[in-house]
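fwd from M.: "can u put these together and see what the complex looks like"

so here's what she sent:
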Amino acid sequence: MFRLFWADDGGLPANDRGLAYGDGLFETIRMVEQKGVLLSRHLERMVRDAGRLGIEVSRRDLANVCVQAAQRFAGRFRGEGWILKLTLTRGSGGRGYRPAPGMEPNLLVSASPLPPMPDIAGEAVDFSKVPLSVNPVLAGIKSLNRIEQVLAAAELGPSLFEVIMADHGGNLVEGTRTNLLLRQSDGWVTPPASSLAVAGVLRQWVLERLRQQGERVSERPVAVDDVLGPDCHGLFLLNSVLGFVPVRTIAGHDLPVDGGLATIFNPLETLE
Amino acid sequence: MFRLFWADDGGLPANDRGLAYGDGLFETIRMVEQKGVLLSRHLERMVRDAGRLGIEVSRRDLANVCVQAAQRFAGRFRGEGWILKLTLTRGSGGRGYRPAPGMEPNLLVSASPLPPMPDIAGEAVDFSKVPLSVNPVLAGIKSLNRIEQVLAAAELGPSLFEVIMADHGGNLVEGTRTNLLLRQSDGWVTPPASSLAVAGVLRQWVLERLRQQGERVSERPVAVDDVLGPDCHGLFLLNSVLGFVPVRTIAGHDLPVDGGLATIFNPLETLE
């Protein structure tokens, strides 16, 4: 189990390891009234990736908290929905970096308004100056170690929706808060999960849906030339809150905008 | 300036970015009554590295807090001393990863007992199974993004004092909480600051002292063979709280133990 904290009742204990070392992980779930987009996948990812960090939590306990959170918060928001955030940390204390055996995790639950939704006609993005370092033992985990994304997000501005971060070899990996999906003439391409800082739940869902429909999907490194070259038939940013965001320009280069993805798939179908 | 929080009065706000993203940094200072070991260097590092993250703080404001903290906490500890911890975060809120302009940082101040001191006859260490990823924009910064160190520290046990982490090229970089200093026949060797996750204040102090004494010091990559080979005349772990820790065995291999460093230099001289 875990100790449960509601953000509107106060914060976590001062010696929480999430604060001390970023020793934990989080999920940000788009809610419509009392139901969540891709809710099962969010909970499954948190349970699985907590396990990779050695933090034990059960899906059932998390699901129960989501029900309580929906009852507590849904009435405070109107219209398009709201955001439910779950922050799970290893717990309080321990000697320095070393976790004490059998620590009880802390779970902080908070709610916030939906952010502004992207322009379905396409958004402008740029390449980030901040490189992305992905440690294989942490690849894909939406952990609380996110300074690289914070520094890259400081490059955003009113006319810049996202910046794309590259690894030390120069391959494009992901945006600060989005995964990449590229349309080429022979199918769809996305960087492999093992290379990602955060493996998004919308990414996994749409790859499965595309394959179910017989589309060809490759998980392989994406070079700058793949995006700027003539075989790029559309670049999408994927985020479970924001949906499918077509990229209209990247670093000032126009890209073909293909609304197809958003017209084929609607993540709001997955409300549960 | 910053908002000041005392850990013994409660934690940080629930929307603090240190918790959300590890968006901040910390210092851990060995105190003897009301004075600190290498205190100036700790404060200078925090100011400089906060600046690298875009968090503004003044040395004078931090120094004032240390005086208040010493008065508040010193009477609660006896004997060898105590630990003063400063945790500085970018502040509360912002939209997602993107910091709001002009955010006021939060500073959390806490005190704890001194940990057990190492055996000056030498300690046993091992190689960590967790690789270390150092992003050049974060190199050396004692940030709150420390999951790699947490996972490596989980490998420690009652008979294992430290594990040494290597980069993806296999070079030895540092321990979970210590920097490395190797004695070879032609002088001292330590991995370069640009390769480090955390550039320790004791490391910098001892490199300067060695050079002042005319000793030869090289900052260059350290391979496993440098440590296990015949030209290793001693390996030291450096930590401003623990001092100079001679390594007696590494992964079961005996190393020559040279107490020289601890007999030449005494960080307690630097109390201020």
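replying to her w this: Residues 124 and 160 of chain B are 5 Å apart (CA to CA).
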